[in-house]
Amino acid sequence: MNLFIDNKSGCPIYEQIYTQIKAQIISGELKEDELLPSIRNLAKDLRISVITTKRAYDELEKDGFIYTVAAKGCFVAAKNVEMLREENLKKIEDHITQIMHLAATCNLSKSDIIEMINCAAEE
Which pLDDT score is estimated for 47? Predict the structure, then answer.
């Protein structure tokens, strides 16, 4: 598992860990039931606080991306298809919002945007 912490980022370190592990799970880079590094080992490797790592793992578990087995560690949870679908729908909605803002700056109408989408779908 490769993680990169950007200390210059305005994003909290636990959130950087959360986001990167989540992305690796969604992409399939981390497989179902794969053992994750222990909280202590990850903290040591990243040279950060154990509390920070624990918070990232707690958030991942709360959101259903990992599960914990007592005395064994944290593992990648089975992909929840509905959760992944919701994630992708949220991304699409965000992109549509960006499209609408850009379209407004170019004086494009809703029908112009629909036409562009139809053209892209034909390709």
Answer: 96
